[in-house]
Amino acid sequence: MHDLTIITTLTGGLAVALVFGWMTQRLGLSTLVGYMLAGIVVGPYTPGFVADANLASQMAEIGVILLMFGVGLHFHPQELLRVWRIAVPGAVAQSAVAAVAGWAAARAFGWSHGAGIVFGMALAVASTVVLMRMLIAQDRLSSRDGHVAVGWLIVEDLFTVIALVVLPALAVEQAGAGAMSAALAVAMGKAALFAVLIWALGTRLVAPLMERITRTQSTELFTLTVFVIALGVALLATEVFSVSVALGAFFGGLVVGQSRFGSQAAADMMPFRDVFSALFFVSVGMLFNPALITSQPGLILTALAIVLIVKPLVALAIVMLMRDTPRTAMTVAVGLAQIGEFSFILAALGKSLGILPAEGLDVLVIAAIVSIALNPLLFRAQEAIESRFKPVPNEIEEPAPAAEATGTPQEITSLVLITGRGELAQRLVQRCARGGLAVCVIDDETGVLESIRRPGVTVILGDPGQQDALKAAGLAHAKMIVITNPLLTEKMRICVAARGVSPRIAIVATADNDAERAWLEEFGAAFVCDVQDEMADLLLRSIRSGL
Fold this sequence. Notes:
Blueprint: H1 5-26, H2 31-41, H3 53-73, H4 77-82, H5 84-108, H6 113-124, H7 128-137, H8 144-170, H9 177-215, H10 219-240, H11 245-257, H12 262-286, H13 292-295, H14 297-321, H15 326-335, H16 341-352, H17 358-388, E1 416-419, H18 423-434, E2 439-443, H19 446-452, E3 457-461, H20 467-472, E4 480-483, H21 488-501, E5 506-511, H22 514-522, E6 527-530, H23 531-546
Parallel strand pairs: 1-2, 1-4, 2-3, 4-5, 5-6
Helix pairs in contact: 1-2, 1-12, 2-12, 2-17, 3-11, 3-12, 5-6, 5-8, 5-14, 6-8, 6-16, 7-8, 8-9, 8-15, 8-16, 9-10, 9-11, 10-11, 14-15, 14-17, 15-17, 16-17
C-alpha cells in the first residue's frame, strides 16, 4: 500500500483551512485567523483528525520562502521615498519601543535576554497582508494616509530582514559578549556577501535566463523558472552561506522584482504563495497548546497590551509630533495594531535556534488571532470617529473643494480625463490645453492640482480609483481617460473604476514594461503606451535625422 501521509496532510489541512477561512471572511475577519484556527483544529492538542506535524512544517517552509520572495518582488523604493520623512523615523522609533516593551515583559516572566529580544521583535512588526487588505477594503490604499502606512510597513519589512541576520548571533548569547559580537559580525558579513553575489548573479545570469525563457512564449516555463529561482536562492542561502531561507528568498525576490519581469513574476507566483502561505499559518496553529491560556494568562494579556495599546499609541504620538494629519495618525496607529506572518517567521527561526521557548510561539499565536480579528473593527471605529468630527480645512486629504468640483457631472464636459501626478501628466495637460482640447484632471493631492491649474483645464479633487470621484469628474460624458499614474496597482484600480462608470470609455494608459502592458490590456485598456518603446522610437528618429 502506498504511503499517503503527505496527501492526507495536504487534503485535510487545506480542507479545514478552506472551511475556517470562508467562515472568518463571512464574519468580516481576515482569512489568516481562519487558517490559524484550522491549524489548532488539526493539531495534536485537539481531538479528531491530526495532520502530520513534520510534513506540515516542511511545507510551511515553502510558505515562508514564497512569502518573503513576494515581499522582495513587491518592494518598491518609490513607495518609501514618497513618505520617507515620516515613515522611516516613525517606524524605527515605534519598532524600537515595542521591541523593548516585549523584551521587558519576557524578562519579567523569567525568560533569557535572547528570548526577550526575539519576543520583542516579533511583537514589533505588523502584518503586511492584513494592512494591505484593510487599506483596500477601506479605499485608503491610494490616499496619503495609505501611502504613509505602506511606507511604514516597508521599513518594518526591512527591520525583519535585519532581524533574520541578527538572530543566529543571539544563539551564542551564553558564550559571552565577545563571542556574540564575533558571531554577529560573521553573520553580517555572510549576509552582505550573499547579497552582493545574488545581485551580481541576478544581473548576469537570472535576467538573461528569464529573457530567454520569455522568448519561448511559454507561460508554464516562465512560472516554473520563477518558482525554481525562489526555492533555489533560498536553498543557496541556508546551505552555503548559513543564513535563513527567508532572508535568501527576500533577496531573490528583490532581484527578480527590480527586473522588467517583476510584475509578471508576482502575478504568476500569487496562486502558489496563497496556497503555501495558508499551509504556513495552519502549521503555526498546529503548534499552539490551548493549555497555555490557563497557565500563562498574564503573559498573554501583556503581549496583547503591547500589540493593541502600546504600538498604536506610540505610532499615533509619533505621527502627531511630526505634524501630520489626525487621519494619517489614526490610520497608521490602527493599521499597526496587529501582528502576523513576519512575527511567526522570526519566532520560528528563534525557536529552531533554541532561543525562544515553545510557549513564546503559543503567545504569539493568541496575540495574532485576537489582534487580526479586531483589526477590521478598529478600522470601522476609526471611520465612526472621523465622521463625528468636522475635517480641518487645511488637511491634505480633505481640503476645501475647488470651485470646479462643485458642479454636477453634467456641467463638466471635458473630452479627455487625465489622472496622475507626475511630470508626464503635467506636460500632457499643457499640450492638450494648447491644442484647444477640453481637459479635466483628477487627483487626490491638492499640490498637484494647484500646479496643473490653468485656463481651459478643469481640476477635480478626488481618488481616480473610486467611481464616485470619476462620476464627479464627468467621466460618463468624456470620450477618453488617460492614466499616467506610476504604480501598476493604481492603474489597475482606475481601469476597473472607469469601466464601472462608463463601459464604453476609451482607456489609454502608460506601461513601463511588457508585463504591465499585458495586465493593463487585461483590465480593459484600449491603448497602452510603452514608455521605453516610445523613447526608443524618438531616439531612432533623432539618429536618422542626424545621419
